[in-house]
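ok so i was messing around last nite and threw this chain in just to see what happens. nothing serious, just curious
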Amino acid sequence: MDDYGKLKNRIEAVVRECESLMNYFDMLLQDSQKGKFAQLQEIEKTIDSMQQKGIDIPPELRKLKLDFLSGLDDVEKQKALKRELIENIQRIFPGQTRNLSKKKKDEMTPNRKPRLPKQFPPDGTLCRFAYKEQLYKAEIQDNQIVVDNYGAFPSFSAASVKISQTSRNGWRDWELWIPELQRWILADIWRKMTK
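result:
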């Protein structure tokens, strides 16, 4: 086979792999989100109703809520992987991606609306952000995120932007160590838990 044929085969293999990955992400995210948000809302309504009536919340119900939040945390991580794939494609082909349909552009463009945090994690909370095969560590101090070797930032997004040099929603980048759960969870999930 000539060089042209080999190159064409490689390109076709890469395109098939990218399409396969995108289809996989779409299927995975669609399946994992079915009904979870509605069920979580029902659990939260039940907990709120019990609290208003002064009824003790059974530990099983709190655990069920944490299990749902943990499942949503996995969904957020899958979304982050999909965004990372798309960002890398955009980085490799910066000019060529401009001609994509508006729907595809909207899927690839991070939400740029500035959002102020309603509540920041307590001081001393450990944080981490994995980006391009590197792990960044931080701690919450004085209502800011203080990133090792980068300094203090007023929001997760500001820290993510400084590290990645791209527009990002830091709530979906940074993970927090939650001692009660003995695990890392996305800041966005922590925020939903503390509403």
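not much to say yet. The CA atoms of residues 21 and 27 lie 10 Å apart.
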